[in-house]
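Lab manual, section 2.4: Encoding a predicted structure.

Procedure: take the sequence of the chain (200 residues), apply the prediction step described in section 2.3, and record the output as structure tokens. A sample record is shown.
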Amino acid sequence: MPDWLRYPVELIDLALAAAALDPAAFERASANRAAALTVLALPFLAGASELLGQAYVLAARRVSRAQAAASLVTTGLVYVAGAVVWGAATYALLAAARPGPPPDAAILGVVAVSYAPRVLSLLTIAPYYGEFVNRALDAWMMTCVALGLWVVVDGALWAVLACAAAGWAVSLSTRRVAGLVLGPAARRLGVITARRRPHV
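Recorded output:
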């Protein structure tokens, strides 16, 4: 297999395994810092996919191809930032709750690979049941996070889930504040990001 093809193939394999709730996928994603950084591509793809799922927004604004591409990249980067904040907040809470938490890269790897179901956000474009699909993908992603943290964190399940939920809330709040601060400037440049979603 050519080297340039190895990374996307391995990423797809890992994403499918995580979406199937395979514990080994979370162990691979949290193995080291390099693995955690590698799977940050999944939040990026999830953000771009979600904006494509709201393609009517791009169509209504009649944006140019360059603006559409910039919007996809921006939304993807927003999701990457959200995953990093979520991982950092969860790590900080775990460190405060119990001695000897796992490495921060392990937590980030779990959170990032758990965005695998969200790569299907394009399906939310469907009329009538798009919102149901959105909520189902949210639940699927949160299930991935819960299982992944339970796999890599040696602790009580309720404490792990509480830290993950609190980290998600911090990440969501950060994203909303960033949207309020940066949104006007982005709109002036014709850059559009996904809206209305209750997750990061």
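Check your result against the sample. Confidence is low (pLDDT under 50) at residues 196-200.
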